[in-house]
Structures are given as C-alpha cells and as structure tokens.
Design the sequence.
C-alpha cells in the first residue's frame, strides 16, 4: 500500500489544434521523487502547470495530497511550491525582499516571514547577497533564490520545472546537492528535465514524455536496462560499405544494428566486449571501419529506443512558438508513438 | 493505494477572512510595485520630465497664441497638464503587468495561495499612489509658472480626486492591454496611439470651440475633456456639476466594461 501525493488520471490538454497532453496518468508516492523526462514541447511544462493549478485540464482529473487541482485549487496552492526554468524572482527586489514578499503572499505573519526568509537565505548560500537586488545575481544564484521562494511556506510537495536548464556545470551540481537535501528531508518532488543525467541522479522513478504522452515509466535502472547501457557507433567510408557491415553485424546489439548513412549504431549492455567482437567480425570479412566510438546513451538514444524517432528539438521549438510560447505543443509526431512502450 | 492528505504548514484561510486576505495581498503587491519605483527612480523622473516640458512649451512658447476667454492661459493649461500626466502614466499599468508576465512572476503568483484579484488590484493601487505623487509634483511646477486656484482648496482637491479616479479607469484599460500584448515594449507601443487622440483632441490645451465642427463633437464629450473641464471648473470657478458627473460616469462605465475583461484575461493568462 502506497500513499499517493500527486495523482493524475487521463489528463488531457489542448491548445487550439495541438494536443499538448494526451490522457496522461501519473501516481507519485509521498516522499519520493518523480522525474518527467522529455524534449522541449513534449508536454512536461503543461503537466506541471496543470498540477500547480496554473492551467486547467480539458479532460481527466488530477490531485495533490488529495485536493483536486480544479475544484480545490486553493488547498492545492497552500501545499505546493513551484520553481521554474524562468527563475521567476523580482529582479528589482533584493533576495530578502523577494522571500519576504512570498511569505506575506502565502499568509505567514510578518515576523514569521522575515525569520523564514533569513533561514532560507542562509541555507541557500545567499546570506551575503541578501540585500542586493536580484538583478545583480548570477544565473545560479537566481535559481537558488527561485527555489528558496518555492519553499517559504514549507510546502510538502515541490514542483521543479527544468531546474537546471541553462546553468553551467558547477551551478548545476550545486543545485542538485540542494535538491537531494530536500528529498532527504522527506519532501515529495516532481521535476521535469531534458537531461537524462539529472533524472538519473535525482529521481526515484522516471516518466519519459513524448508528444503529450508518457511513453515509458520506471526506475532509471529499468529504463536503462531496456536501452542497453552503452552505444557503439562504427563509421564507414561510404553508405554501401556501412550497409554490408550492418548486414554482417545483424546478430549484435539489443535491438539489432541501426544504420544512419555511413554510420552503424548498436545499443548494447557491454560496450567494450561487443566492440571487440564487432571488430573481429568485420576483420574476418575484410571490412575496415573509418571511425569507432563507444558512448553512454544520451537522451536522444532513450528517445530513439522508446519512440522510434529522435528528439527533433528544433521542430518542437517551432511548434511551441506557434502555440503562444507554451511548452504545451505536441507536434504531429505524437501519433507515431509505438504502443507497448509503457512498462 | 490510498491518497494522503498531509497536514499543510499553511492553514487555509477561514471563510470570514477572505476579504481580509484579498486586501492584505493587494497591499503586498502594491508595496512591491512601489519598491520598484523607489529602486528605479529614473522611471519616475522620466514620467515627470515630459509633462514639465509640456508646461514650459505651452506656458511660454505656444500659450501666447492661444486665446482662452475669461482666464489666463496658465490657469487654463494646468488642469490639462494634470490630465495628460496621469493619462500617459496609465501606460505604466500595462507596461508593469506585461513585464511581470514576461518575467514569469505572474506564473509564480498564480501558484500561490493568494487572492486572485491582488495582482491586478495591487497594480492599480500602486499606480494610483504614483499618480497622486506625480500630480502633486505638477501642482508645484504649476505654482512656479503662475498657476493659481481661484476657488478654494477643497474644491480643487475634489477636482484632483475626480481626475485620479479617471486615471484608475485608464489603468484598468491598460491592464487589459498589458496582459494581451505580453511584452513591456509592445504595451508601450500600443498605448501611445490610443492615448494621443484622447489627450490632444481634447480641451486639455486649447478651447474646443476653435476646432472644426466634426471634431468638436468628439472633443467636447470624450472622457479626458470632461475630466479636464471638471478640474478646471473646480479650480477656476464656473458650473461644475455637469462636468463632474460626466467624468464620473465615464470612469464608472470604463471600469464596468474593462474591469471584467481584464479580470477574465488575467484568469486565462498563464
């Protein structure tokens, strides 16, 4: 028996002709971290907006800690925190003023709001910058202030929409450490991300979102096991040679080799061993590769394996712009999602 | 699977205090907007320089050529300047909201357990405070160039209240514009062509009687003219009731039409 903190059943949202969310189901147990992983325009932000009462769904139901996001929106709002990729802090206010304002707007008494602001500034390493306007903050500092603002009223459930997008590596790992701490304190967290590594590090369970649907769900280990943990790429001088090689290597790889022009790609459990075998096989047939590479699977590989297409970020961005700048657009490719991806 | 209803750190507001919270939230937002003005005083300086230039131009450059029967031109001019100042000031409402929208602040506000009316209400309150301050400054400027009240201070203050209420109704219109265009730059650009005919095809700077007949119909009855005429009558003398009532009617009418539209737009904007 599990306590569900965030639940969604058949949540659907349309923007004009675009189906942004197509009957999404979610169940996030209390005290766990759920990662929504997907490219721009997959519907992640739309889902977060619905769960945080900013948008209303066109169909289906969703609730947070038992309160319906439409009918009991005020109850939901008093129990959630939201921090987003756009770092919504008032840049004309100081860090301290930003947090005190949020405290007042979440109806904390003035001295309580002031104390809470000091606490959070200290905790997020912003105490020295507390009385500078947020305009003077670095990107990483703004994100930390944004996250602190989401925590002022001690919400038991936190939503983070692409918390580290656009941050440098150092700021990203700083923020990850902070998030991991919150999780250790028992907070329920739903985060969206484009980075496999981020979902891997922070999330207990991951839902892969594409074209407005959750196409796969599981722990990072489960998803990776399905993918093969490494990708082997062998390049050839020309397409013809690559085609011959792909044929010769048909027995390798989790899902068989995939040829992309002069490149042959495998997803495998044990990269180095397979690479030796592959090179041996090619050598026997007198085929000489031009390039050889082993790499960790990227988000692109996850998508390729789960959906049969690459992430097409550019396409998604255009569709997003056309739908009014919301991360809600589901490009037409949503229909190409193969069935059976859900595990 | 069961669903938990974890105790929240924040108790839901008891039903009786909803209005109390709405007022408190509105004041919090208004206070935050006014802090922005304190932080960026250049905004206020620019908002004041333009009307000061108009005062100097019309008082000393154009004024000599403009005949105002019965009263000195400077006494005719200043009520028009007050109205011009608050009218262009109302653009700030749209610019401020569009800026909040653009920066994602409105999205954050919408996820908080605060009163839904507070973002719009707070903006209108802070703009009222700003307008009051700027009108006060312009009174000082007017005094320096020879403007005098020929009725009594109470009547003059009453005239300024009518004017500031009218400014609130314009703020409501620009709240809708700001939420619709979504960027501060477009709010600024959209505003000027809407306001220019209101300010210049009016009784603010020249007597309406000098205009061609077709324009007089508009210029005599449009909201800015009747408001200027009300302030002028309350500061210089003459019949006041009709102008005050017409101005208040416009104010109420504009808020009745654009208020619900702005609120609806806010609810649908995310």
Sequence:
């Amino acid at each position: 028996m599990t306590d569900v903190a965030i639940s969604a059943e058949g949540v659907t949202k349309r923007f004009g002709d675009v189906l942004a969310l197509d009957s999404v189901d979610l169940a996030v147990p209390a005290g766990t971290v759920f990662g929504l992983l997907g490219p721009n325009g997959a519907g992640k932000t739309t889902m977060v907006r619905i769960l945080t009462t900013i948008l209303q769904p066109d169909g289906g139901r969703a609730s947070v800690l038992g309160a319906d996001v439409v009918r009991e929106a005020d109850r939901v709002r008093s129990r959630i925190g939201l921090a987003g990729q756009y770092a919504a802090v008032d840049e004309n206010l100081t860090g301290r003023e930003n947090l005190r304002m949020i405290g007042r707007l979440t109806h904390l008494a003035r001295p309580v709001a002031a104390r809470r602001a000091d606490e959070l500034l200290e905790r997020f390493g912003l105490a020295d910058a507390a009385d500078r306007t947020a305009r003077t903050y670095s990107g990483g500092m703004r994100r930390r202030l944004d996250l602190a603002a989401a925590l002022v009223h001690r919400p038991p459930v936190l939503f983070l929409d692409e918390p580290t997008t656009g941050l440098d590596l150092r700021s990203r790992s700083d923020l990850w450490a902070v998030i991991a701490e919150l999780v250790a304190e028992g907070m329920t967290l739903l985060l969206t991300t484009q980075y496999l590594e981020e979902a891997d590090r922070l999330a207990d369970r991951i839902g892969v979102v594409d074209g407005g649907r959750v196409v796969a769900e599981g722990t990072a280990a489960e998803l990776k096991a399905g993918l093969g943990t490494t990708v082997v790429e062998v390049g050839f001088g020309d397409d013809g040679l690559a085609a011959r090689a792909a044929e010769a290597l048909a027995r390798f790889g989790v899902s068989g080799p995939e040829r992309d022009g002069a490149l042959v790609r495998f997803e495998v459990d044990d990269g180095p061993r397979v690479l030796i075998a592959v090179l041996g096989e090619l050598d026997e047939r007198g085929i000489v590769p031009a390039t050889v590479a082993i790499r960790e699977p990227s988000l692109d590989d996850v998508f390729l394996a789960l959906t049969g297409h690459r992430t097409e970020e550019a396409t998604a961005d255009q569709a997003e712009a056309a739908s009014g700048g919301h991360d809600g657009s589901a490009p037409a490719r949503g229909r190409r999602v193969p069935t059976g991806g859900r595990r | 699977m069961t669903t938990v209803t974890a105790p929240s750190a924040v108790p839901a507001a008891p039903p009786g205090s909803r209005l109390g919270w709405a007022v408190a939230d509105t004041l919090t937002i208004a206070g935050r907007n006014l802090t922005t003005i304190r932080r960026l005083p250049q905004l206020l300086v620019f908002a004041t320089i333009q009307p000061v230039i108009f005062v100097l131009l019309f008082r000393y450059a154009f004024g000599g050529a403009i005949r105002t029967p019965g009263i000195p031109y400077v006494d005719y001019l200043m009520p028009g300047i007050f109205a011009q100042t608050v009218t262009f000031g109302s653009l700030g409402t749209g610019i401020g909201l569009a800026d909040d929208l653009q920066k994602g602040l409105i999205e954050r506000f919408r996820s908080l357990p605060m009163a839904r009316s507070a973002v719009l209400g707070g903006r209108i309150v802070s703009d009222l405070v700003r307008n009051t301050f700027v009108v006060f400054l312009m009174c000082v400027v007017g005094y320096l160039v020879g403007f005098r009240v020929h009725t009594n201070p109470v009547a003059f203050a009453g005239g300024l209240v009518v004017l500031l209420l009218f400014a609130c109704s314009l703020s409501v219109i620009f709240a809708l514009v700001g939420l619709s265009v979504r960027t501060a730059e477009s709010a600024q650009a959209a505003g000027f062509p809407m306001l220019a005919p209101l300010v210049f095809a009016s009784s603010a700077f020249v007597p309406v009687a000098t205009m061609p007949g077709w324009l007089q119909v508009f210029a005599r009855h449009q909201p800015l003219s009747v408001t200027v005429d009300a302030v002028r009558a309350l500061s210089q003398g003459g019949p006041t009731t009709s102008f005050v009532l017409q101005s208040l009617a416009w104010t109420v009418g504009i808020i009745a039409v654009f208020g619900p539209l702005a609120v609806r737009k806010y609810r649908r904007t995310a």
Q: What stands out?
A: Chain A touches chain B through 48 residues (CB under 8 Å). The two ends of chain A are 20 Å apart (CA to CA). Residues 312-343 of chain A have pLDDT under 50 and may be disordered. Chain A has two domains: 4-224, 230-295.
